[in-house]
Design brief:
By secondary structure, the chain is of the alpha/beta class. Helices cover about 40% and strands about 20% of the residues. It has a 7-stranded parallel sheet with strand order 3-2-1-4-5-6-11, sandwiched between helices. Strands 12-9-14 form a 3-stranded mixed sheet. A two-stranded parallel ribbon has the order 7-10. Nicotinamide-adenine-dinucleotide binds next to α1, α5, β5 and β7.
Length: about 350
């Protein structure tokens, strides 16, 4: 397939490009480099199968010409601003980037030959699920608790409306809404990793905290009603996540829109993740205990049985220590990230 990958220079997008190229697909990698790393794409060393384009998904003329020039049939839309806290401080920036610019992308797709659209949505669209709905199924009511979560939900609705309208036309499209839980780990060949600035994800933050002279990890809330008092989340390995994209891309049918949760289906507390980092690195994670952060859900993990049942997807990484170890290996080799 000829795939436009947006947000391709980011953490998950770059892993997706690598996997697509390995599968023989041709990739156009679009990123405005506001948060990503051109180096991650250059490291893929993919010759003519990869075209790197620097620009915004909101630049409709640019996207239109990429779609036409490369005969794109599939879009994987990873590009977004993705910090919950930042979205609370700058909600309109999030709506502009994630919704308005995303709609410009969709406008270009609508006018082109794109047949499949796979969207990076989030468990943040569920907000704080009602009691009894954890593990969270796709049918859980969606009530986001942050502007970031809302931008993802609004875009899901735009895609559903688009796919519905196109299903009634002579040019139906296939749409997949993939709702990720917490993504972690790194490419097993060691080429790609996770390099955000600032970093807010627990696994890389905990790994960085093991380094000599690094600031200790802030543990927010130790009095939650969980077995050890800390929040519980679902950590899905980035390679498993990307596999789910390939499977979805090759299975979804035109005229249909599907939503799948992507998670391991099991939760780990913050203290368990810290213990996994200590086992994987052989070093201690210094911790400072702090009060709860407003808005953090107590426990959030996926019921991902729908994609297993319908497409046969099963995560290969089910041991959190292995997931963490893959991330730790990349940090060991790239202590200063891509810019080191
Ligand atoms: N990492 C997670 O745990 C997680 C969980 C749920 C959902 N998601 C979603 O997955 C996607 C990828 O996440 P990530 O962790 O790789 O983030 P990331 O920040 O590493 O990558 C996002 C990329 O998008 C680019 N970008 C942002 N706005 C753009 C625009 N308007 N035009 C072009 N490029 C733009 C950035 O430069 C960056 O390279 C995001 O949509 C995010 O919301 C991630």
């Amino acid at each position: 397939m000829n795939v436009l990958v947006t947000g391709a220079a980011g953490y998950i997008g770059s892993h997706a490009c690598k996997r697509l190229l390995a599968g023989g697909h041709r990739v156009v990698a679009l990123d405005d480099l506001s948060r990503g790393h051109r180096r991650a794409l250059e490291l893929l060393d993919a010759g003519e199968s990869l075209c790197i384009a620097e620009g915004s998904v909101g630049d409709e003329p640019l996207v239109t010409s990429l779609l036409a020039e490369h005969a794109i049939d599939t879009v994987m839309h990873f590009a977004a601003l993705a910090y919950v806290g930042e979205s609370v401080e700058q909600p309109l920036r999030y709506y502009t980037n994630n919704v308005a610019q995303g709609l410009a992308l969709l406008g270009a797709c609508d006018a082109s030959g794109v047949e499949r659209f796979v969207f990076s949505s989030s468990c943040a669209t569920y907000g704080d699920p009602p009691e009894g709905l954890v593990p969270v199924p796709e049918t859980c009511p969606q009530h986001p608790t942050s502007p970031y979560g809302w931008t993802k939900l609004v875009y899901e609705h735009a895609l559903l409306g688009w796919s519905h309208a196109r299903a009634l036309s002579s040019r139906p499209v296939a749409v997949a809404l993939l709702r990720y839980f917490n993504v972690a780990g790194a490419d097993s060949s060691g080429v790609l990793g996770e390099d955000h600035d600032p970093e807010t994800h627990l696994v890389p933050v905990a790994i960085r905290a093991t380094r000599e002279g690094a600031a200790p990890l802030s543990l927010f809330g130790t009095d939650y009603p969980t077995h050890d008092g800390t929040c519980v989340r679902d950590y899905v390995h980035v390679e498993d996540l990307v596999d789910a994209h390939i499977l979805t891309m090759t299975s979804i049918k035109r005229g249909k829109a599907v939503a799948y949760n992507l998670g391991v289906g099991r939760g780990h507390s913050v203290r368990e993740v810290i213990a996994a980092v200590e086992r994987a690195t052989g070093r201690r994670v210094p911790v400072v205990e702090k009060r709860r952060r407003p808005g953090d859900a107590v426990a959030l993990y996926a019921d991902a049985s729908k994609i297993t049942r319908e497409l046969g997807w099963k995560p290969r990484y089910t041991d959190i220590v292995e997931t963490v170890a893959s991330a730790a290996r990349w940090f060991e080799a790239n202590p200063r990230g891509y810019d080191g």
